[in-house]
Request: fold
Amino acid sequence: MLPSSENYEDDEYDEESEADFDVETEPSRTYAMVLSKDVGKKGIFLGIVDEEEALRQAIMKMISTERYAYEIYSWDYGIELSDLIGMPMNYAMSEVKLRIEDALTADDRIEAVEDFQVMRTGKNMLHVTFTVITAEGDIIEGIETEVEV
Reply:
């Protein structure tokens, strides 16, 4: 015999489907790292960080990891910058803002990315500064990175 919806009353089902629980956020505590962009150097672990510093570290790791390049990460993790190499500088300067915003807002902890400042620092290098608005409404200012294009 297969169960059918005829055995349930609509009022009873609606009451059961409404859950009475609180959603708790996991702590952001993680290992502190020094990320190196040099291919031959490894990252260094320095202890434990939490809250804003942990999120800053996660942001730097996201924008330092090329999306789709590593099987260990989901397809939502990282940033797509490799196809900007060799593109006209004006295009790359405008596109890097969109790519950073796309990479970071894929994380549930980040609501928005704004106040971009992009400056050319070399023949194929950009210096990017921006501000992150967290899901809790906190503002993390002064995040900086170098992007090779």
